[in-house]
């Protein structure tokens, strides 16, 4: 097993622990069935209290994986199986040994903090090219048999779950669950963007040789010369293009400031960079 793979599994484990904590200490005690298999488990736990949310989640995930293998071929990676079943095991462990309770009974606070913690954990899992399974499988089944795209299928599944929560726990809790689903989708994307964001830099300077050397040797990053022509001077110029991390940009900016205060620099946020030195193309 490579170092990267070990790192991925460690991050996935950390991510599912965060999701489990959000469910056990914010969602489940306040009956907030905020979509997903854990949402179904919270609703079913109210109907069958002898079965814990963790146990129900495990049974549902096993049933969904079995259905997936029979209906859509079960083309799931090892990371997804690990994350999905691992989440159920962690939840069961919390219920078995830590006697979880509601950290807050204020539904606004529980919805906000539970959703943020869960979104951060799920973003870590997704960023490692895995998923927590569950309703993703239901969405794929809907996609195969009813030709509904995956995004809409996930939304339909989550709406059905939150509707069930409203029927079982009341409209107020149902609306909070729906709010959590909406915030979760938006927040996960923002967290993933934050994990992978880099700075896309374009530099025009007469000292381009020194700057490019600094990027290559001191920052250990690549850069490219783009050919340009100054409109006013009509002279050929070399434009430096590079993609670097935030901390590296601070160093680069200080270096340029020290050798050419007249340099022209543009900076753009890049939310996904694939290739050598960054994330692998998978």
TrEMBL record:
PANTHER family referenced in this protein's UniProt entry, alphabetically: UPF0750 MEMBRANE PROTEIN YITE (PTHR33545:SF9), UPF0750 MEMBRANE PROTEIN YITT-RELATED (PTHR33545)
Membrane-protein topology: Multi-pass membrane protein
Gene3D superfamilies for this protein: 3.30.70.120
A Pfam match: YitT_membrane
Main location: membrane
CDD domains, sorted: YitT_C
Protein name according to UniProt: YitT family protein
Transmembrane segments: 9-27, 47-69, 76-94, 100-126, 146-167
Subcellular location: Cell membrane
This protein's record includes keyword Transmembrane helix: yes
InterPro entries to which the protein is assigned, alphabetical: DUF2179, N-reg_PII/ATP_PRibTrfase_C, UPF0750_membrane, YitT
Keyword Transmembrane attached: yes
Gene source species: Clostridium cibarium
Keywords assigned by UniProt, alphabetized: Cell membrane, Membrane, Transmembrane, Transmembrane helix
Domain DUF2179: 221-275
């Amino acid at each position: 097993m490579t170092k990267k793979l070990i790192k991925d599994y460690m991050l996935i484990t950390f991510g599912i622990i965060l999701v489990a904590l959000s469910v056990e200490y914010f969602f489940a005690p306040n009956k907030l069935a905020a979509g997903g298999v854990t949402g179904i488990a919270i609703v079913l736990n109210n109907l069958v209290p002898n079965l814990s949310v963790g146990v129900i989640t495990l049974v549902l995930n096993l049933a969904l994986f079995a259905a997936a293998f029979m209906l859509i071929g079960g083309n799931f990676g090892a990371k997804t199986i690990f994350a999905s079943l691992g989440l159920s095991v962690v939840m069961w462990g919390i219920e078995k040994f830590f006697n979880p309770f509601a950290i807050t009974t204020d539904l606004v606070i529980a919805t906000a903090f539970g959703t943020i913690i869960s979104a951060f954990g799920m973003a870590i899992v997704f960023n490692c090219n895995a998923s927590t399974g569950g309703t993703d499988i239901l969405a794929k089944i809907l996609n195969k048999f009813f030709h509904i795209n995956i995004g809409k299928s996930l939304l339909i599944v989550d709406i059905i779950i939150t509707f069930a929560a409203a029927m079982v726990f009341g409209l107020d809790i149902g609306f909070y669950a729906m709010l959590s689903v909406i915030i979760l989708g938006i927040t996960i994307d923002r967290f993933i963007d934050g994990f992978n964001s880099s700075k896309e830099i374009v530099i025009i300077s007469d000292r381009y040789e020194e700057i490019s050397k600094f990027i290559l040797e001191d920052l250990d990053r690549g850069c490219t010369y783009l050919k340009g022509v100054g409109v006013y001077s009509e002279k050929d110029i070399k434009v430096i293009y590079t993609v670097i991390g935030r901390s590296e940009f601070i160093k680069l900016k200080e270096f340029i400031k020290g050798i050419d205060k007249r340099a022209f620099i543009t900076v753009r946020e890049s939310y996904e960079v694939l290739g050598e030195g960054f994330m692998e193309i998978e």
